[in-house]
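Saturday, quiet lab. Running sequence design on the structure tokens for the scaffold JK sent over.
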């Protein structure tokens, strides 16, 4: 008995091979989403690029060196943001000059609004300069 037997008379509408192909596709999407949820990054047809095993210690060290949001100065829900995204250049994942601390506090959410321009698929490469300008304006 195959996995699509619960469909009853479905094979009369389509061949079983279509159901198998659809099932395989659904399983493939499931595995990709599961890996993304667990921290893997997809490189298209080249496979999966997982986070470096050193990432947790580099993140922790960066948060100790830069313990406040560089945009608003907040200390709640801090996140380490890559100026040049990990998905664009994997060699810069652990490089200090590519990291900046931004918050994900409910009101400000500088990481999403300032670091990603309100779109998780984009990134703002000038975020550090923007933060400096914003701090200067706030002080003056």
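Result came back. Writing it out in full:
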């Amino acid at each position: 008995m195959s996995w699509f037997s619960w469909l009853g008379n479905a094979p009369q509408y389509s061949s079983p091979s279509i159901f198998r192909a659809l099932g395989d596709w659904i399983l493939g999407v499931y595995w990709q989403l599961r890996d993304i949820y667990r921290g893997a990054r997809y490189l298209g047809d080249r496979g999966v690029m997982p986070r470096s095993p050193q990432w947790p210690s580099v993140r922790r060290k960066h948060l100790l060196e830069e313990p406040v949001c560089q945009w608003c100065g907040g200390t709640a829900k801090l996140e380490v943001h890559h100026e040049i995204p990990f998905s664009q250049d994997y060699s810069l994942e652990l490089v200090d000059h590519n990291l900046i601390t931004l918050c994900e506090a409910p009101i400000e959410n500088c990481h999403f609004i300032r670091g990603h321009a309100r779109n998780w698929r984009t990134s703002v490469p000038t975020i550090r300069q923007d933060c400096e300008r914003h701090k200067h304006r706030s002080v003056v």
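Notes for JK: The chain has four helices and four strands. The first strand starts at residue 41 and ends at 42. Ask whether to fix the surface positions before the next round.
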